[in-house]
Amino acid sequence: MFRIKKLDIFIVKQFALLFLGTFFICQFVLMMQFLWRYVDELIGKGLSLEIMAQFFWYMGLMLIPQALPLAILLSSLISFGNLGESSELTAIKAAGVSLLQAFRPLIFIVLIIAGISFYFQNIVAPMANQSFYRLLLGVKQKSPEVEIPEGIFYDGIQGSNIYVQKKDLKTGMLYGVMIYRQSGSYEDQAIILADSGMMQSTAEKKHLVLNLYSGEWFENMRSQDLANSAAVPYRRETFSTKRIVLDFDGGFNLADLADISADARAKSLGKILHDMDSIREFNDSVGHAYYNEAQHYTYRHPQLSKNDSVKAFKEARSGKVNIDTIFGRLSNREKQQVVTDAMNSIRMTMTDMEFKGEYTEYLHRRMRTHQIEAIGKFTLALSCIIFFFIGAPLGAIIRKGGLGVPVIVSVLVFIVYFIFENSGMKMARDDQWTVWFGKLISTAVLTPIAVFFTYKANNDSVVFNIDLYKNLAMKLLGLRSKRHIFRKEVIIEDPKYQADAEKLLSLNQDIYRYTHEHKLLHWPSPIKVFFHEGDDQEMETISERLEEVIEDLGYTKDKIILSELNNYPILATTAHTRPFRKKWLNIIAGLIIPLGIFLYIRMLRFRMRLYRDLRTIRHTSDHIVERINNM
User: pTM of the prediction?
Assistant: First the structure.
């Protein structure tokens, strides 16, 4: 029987508060990024607060499905990072609760969030998308006088520069109007001054009607026949009212209304599937029509019948008739006419084929966009679950809370998802990849990552232990840390100085003998290195004996001995014999020539370093023995 435990409530509270905060942060970031695409459409339009609120409302509804996965990733990572950093996750595991059991309440919540994401994509987002672009189209239809700024010249109308000293957005009146109109060269321009005016667009949104009041019109009357530009006549007109028509294309198109409702982003899943059948049937009919037209296409000459054309074609294919000979018998005028007719026929055919190709590509692209949108409704909801199984295990592994490391990791994961998602969508939309492959590539990449992280976190893996990778890198590069032995604050028992001195003298004799027997400065046989197994047991014994003496002498109060102890190097007991501990890895490394050469040279370096280390140990031991004898 399913029971809600106190631990489940505790974890849900930790996650819920962070999820709400990160969701609004992600939503705000996405809205700002989306707003930059339409900032030119909104700035300077004189839009009311109500219209702006509608813009942001519809924009927010459209972006909720995209903000949910990122919020789940960040909040789950911070939640379990906080639990790990405060050792609460360790206490949970110590109580016999596995990591997957701790995930259980959040998995249920994430499934609900994924369902909400699908609902928004299928029901809310299409309506919001349609309303948003209708509102944007309405802004395009607004009278352009709201675009004209005060106090500077506005050149948004072709062939004219308009200056307005002041404008009243409520009445639409413009005050202190100055217009420079230029239809050709500099001498053909006109200057219009008016005390006030009002601007309106025509019904088809292709022209502007400007009604001016109490003004003057100065215009050059330059003629093309006048040679002296200094003698250009002009006219001056004073008017009480003047009506001017200006060419202006506000970007309004009646087809935009139909395009909004036909866009796949403005449709639910059921509508998309229904329209895909209609689109597929229409595409097939167009394809059959083009095929039948190509099958019955014949070149028609005004003086030849269809049977004559077919007969001539068959004779030319049979080889009985030489076309070049027939062409050579024609007169120059007939040859020119034949070539001209052939070129015209080729141009017409090429134009027809280009048009059909572009139209066919448009039909296929429309079909692909519907398929992309249908699949995207599922993949974006599924990404909520995938991001949870990436963020929660990563938080348990990293054990870092707050907004530092989790934010960096979340951004990196989201960048990977964003690159694959957008690249796959664009390649599928352009028919470079199949639609299924392009839309599922991000899911296919992140799902194994989520499974890997969940498995590692559930088994207490140290896959993200920085110290582990640091030690591995130092080992591969042959780097090592120095000893740091300090005086103990509390010393219960003094070191056995005489026994340690005897051990150091015995150790020096063994090191001297080992150096001469193994000949560390000589090149070893590559066969023994890569194809024979066996560790250097004697060097491991020497290292263990040395560490025992160092451990005992570390409790001394003598500063000189402590200083000498820090001079002892940390020995690498196996790196000078073979690259790896496992025999099969050594064999593979030896068979891969470039890798084997690199590892062999690296091993030679370790042998030389071991030789210097042993010499340093002998000298340091002599100094310590001498100090002990003098105590």
Answer: 0.61
